[in-house]
Design goal:
The chain is an alpha+beta fold and 240 residues long. The protein has one domain. It is 24% helix and 29% strand.
Length: 240
């Protein structure tokens, strides 16, 4: 099972799915306040006359097909991963030339996925131990026809290699070019968890901000997570 056309497609309907992002990224007013995406180009053109930095906030809107854009409350969390895609930030299912919205089916899966990537960043930058950047939990729904790598026959698929994105990026590029909406796959960071890599923002809906979280770096790994609202601290004992 290596060819894209051999991967089955499943309808994925997740309520209460979770995405965790850095709190440094604020909501984007255009996406939040103007519900009809058809109005965006004209508004952007007008705003640029007085605010030349607006595109740095909005990103590259051309990366999202007009018919697949979403607007209204909370939709910054759905649009931003696509309009701010960059080849400086490749990931499992993109080389950075297009955006992907990554979602965990449950909170723990999203948590362990982000912890893995945060730990890699902290290691590369030789950060001192301590409480590091704040994150925010986004709770949302997923509803899409996705290419499915969860079956037993896909267990050894090269796209699920925990240490390399070469095969997964190639697969995603082929699927996206063929009109796919995304991929559902077993998490390689959280045993029993599932993830979705969505190629378009309209594959998800109803995003609501949840908790603010702090990650603690002990010099080698993220060992503690703190709920910034309640002050509760949780120790990560069994990292998968």
């Amino acid at each position: 099972m290596t060819l894209a056309e051999h991967i089955p497609v499943s309808r994925v309907e997740w309520k209460g799915a979770v995405r965790i992002i850095r709190s440094a990224f604020p909501p984007i007013d255009l996406f939040e306040d103007i519900a009809d995406p058809a109005d965006w180009p004209l508004l952007i053109s007008a705003e640029q006359k007085t605010n030349p930095r607006i595109m740095a906030t909005i990103g590259n809107l051309d990366l999202v097909p007009v018919g697949r854009r979403v607007g209204g409350d909370g939709t910054s969390y759905l649009m931003a991963p696509f309009t701010h895609a960059s080849t400086d930030r490749p990931s499992r299912f993109t080389d950075g030339t297009y955006g992907v919205l990554y979602v965990g089916n449950v909170f723990e899966t999203a948590l362990f996925e982000t912890i893995h990537h945060h730990a890699r960043f902290m290691t590369r930058t030789t950060e001192a131990p301590g409480w590091s950047s704040q994150f925010r939990e986004i709770v949302l729904s997923v509803g899409a026809q996705l290419h499915d790598l969860r079956g037993a026959e896909a267990a050894n698929h090269p796209a699920l290699d925990p240490g390399s994105y070469e095969a997964s990026q190639g697969l995603a590029l082929t699927l996206k070019a063929g009109g796919a909406d995304g991929i559902v796959y077993p998490s390689v960071r959280h045993q029993s968890g599932e993830c979705a890599a969505l190629f378009y923002p309209d594959c998800a809906s109803d995003p609501v901000q949840g908790r603010h979280l702090d990650y603690h770096w002990d010099g080698k790994r993220v060992d503690l997570v703190r709920d910034a609202g309640s002050g509760e601290v949780f120790r990560l004992v069994d990292l998968p």
